[in-house]
């Protein structure tokens, strides 16, 4: 076993993205908004100065109230947003159908027991794909937020998975170029969700009619909520060439989805995520490093962005840590199975201690 030391500059190929909802007014389920309204379209001018060039979208981030508009009106509004992005030098990374807010999806969208509600979900998905293509965006994200149950006996899980696969195949047939990125999460808002891990998502991809176009998007917090190591989840997807993007953040235990700053709760866990991405060459094909982080509710200001710049900065610092790590010494400790020494060396490296 032989590794060589890696010493590289911070001149990376990494591109960064976030969704406009990450610059929010600071509302939560227990209180009102605490910062002034900052419309999505006003946020695009902030991206490039902050070091970001990719924009993540929900369908109604692009076209508010799209369900009340005609197809021509939807395309007109999408064209306006596309022009805004082009003027700012921004790239739309993906568009996701928001299938967890409408009344029709309270018991699921694609897996609802109601055929009428399932038809609604498919219609909304078609609109989302049309928006993505008009925006010159290559991918849609399926966060299967309400595809699960509160009472396990209320749904047939086997049938639910069949319906999800049928939907994936419908999407692939509806548009011959679009990619589907599945974003797994084990719970919240449902008690238990279908497709809770990247392993489930990859299985769905392989079962689909066009596996090359079905991939995964891994969020740090979602993996941790499943009791899994986020870096291992990323490694699994990378081993199958199925990691389309990431949502980096952090999570303090098995709680609600906190979307804390990347590395804010577990710096070593963040290091391992960066290491997995760096060693696999993630980003070399143009993939974005996405952030999904919330500003602290106590943060004051208008257009609050420190949580985004801090997370991006921490990522780049950890890239340097990965590249300056002594791989030869690591190989020797692994060969000797001296994992106590390896752990101490890693921690001292992260702390900058010789």
**Main β sheet profile:** 8 strands, parallel
**Strand order, biggest sheet?**
3-2-1-10-9-8-6-4
- Show unreliable segments: 1-11
State the shape.
globular
Topology (elements, then pairings):
Elements: E1 15-18, H1 40-50, E2 54-58, H2 59-62, H3 71-88, E3 91-96, H4 115-134, E4 139-143, E5 148-149, H5 157-174, E6 179-183, E7 192-193, H6 198-207, E8 214-219, H7 220-225, H8 230-239, E9 243-248, H9 267-280, E10 288-291, H10 306-324, H11 327-335, H12 339-351
Parallel strand pairs: 1-2, 1-10, 2-3, 4-6, 6-8, 8-9, 9-10
Antiparallel strand pairs: 5-7
What does this structure look like?
The structure is a single chain. It is built from 12 helices and 10 strands. With 354 residues, the protein is an alpha/beta fold. The protein has an 8-stranded parallel beta sheet. The protein is globular. The model is unreliable at 1-11 (pLDDT under 50).
List keywords for this structure.
10 strands; single chain; eight-stranded parallel β-sheet; two-stranded antiparallel ribbon; 354 residues; TIM Barrel; globular; alpha/beta
Brief description of this entry?
This protein is α/β, with parallel strands linked by helices and about 350 residues long. The chain has 12 helices and 10 strands. The protein has helices at about 40-50, 60, 70-90, 115-135, 155-175, 200-205, 220-225, 230-240, 265-280, 305-325, 325-335, 340-350; strands at about 15-20, 55-60, 90-95, 140-145, 150, 180-185, 190-195, 215-220, 245-250, 290.
């Amino acid at each position: 076993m032989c590794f060589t030391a890696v010493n590289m500059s911070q001149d990376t190929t990494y591109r960064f993205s976030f969704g406009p909802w990450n610059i929010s007014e600071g509302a939560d389920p227990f209180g009102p908004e605490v910062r002034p309204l900052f419309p999505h379209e006003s946020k695009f001018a902030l991206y490039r100065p902050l070091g970001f060039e990719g924009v993540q979208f929900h369908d109604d981030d692009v076209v508010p109230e799209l369900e009340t508009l005609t197809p021509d009106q939807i395309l007109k509004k999408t064209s306006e947003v596309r022009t805004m992005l082009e003027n700012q030098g921004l790239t739309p990374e993906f568009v996701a159908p928001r299938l967890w807010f409408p009344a029709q999806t309270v018991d699921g969208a694609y897996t609802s027991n109601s055929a009428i509600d399932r038809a609604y979900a498919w219609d909304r998905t078609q609109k989302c794909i049309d928006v993505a293509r008009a925006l010159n965006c290559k991918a849609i994200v399926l966060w299967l937020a309400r595809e699960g149950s509160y009472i396990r006996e209320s749904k047939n899980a086997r049938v639910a998975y069949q319906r999800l696969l049928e939907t994936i195949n419908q999407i692939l047939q509806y548009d011959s170029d679009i990619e589907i990125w599945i974003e797994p999460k084990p719970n919240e808002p449902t008690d238990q969700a279908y497709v809770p891990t990247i392993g489930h998502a990859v299985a769905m991809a392989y079962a689909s009619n066009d596996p090359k176009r079905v991939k995964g998007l891994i969020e740090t917090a979602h993996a941790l909520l499943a009791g899994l190591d986020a870096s291992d989840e990323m490694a699994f997807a990378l081993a199958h060439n199925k990691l389309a993007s990431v949502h980096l953040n952090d999570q303090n235990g098995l709680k609600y989805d906190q979307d804390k700053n990347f590395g804010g709760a577990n710096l070593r866990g963040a290091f391992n995520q960066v290491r997995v991405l760096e060693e696999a060459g993630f980003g070399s094909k143009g993939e974005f490093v996405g952030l999904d982080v919330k500003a602290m509710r106590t943060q004051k200001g208008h257009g609050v962005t420190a949580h985004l710049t801090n997370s991006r900065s921490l990522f780049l610092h950890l890239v340097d840590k990965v590249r300056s790590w002594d791989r030869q010494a690591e190989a020797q400790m692994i060969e000797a199975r001296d994992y106590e020494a390896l752990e101490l060396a890693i921690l001292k490296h992260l702390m900058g201690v010789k």
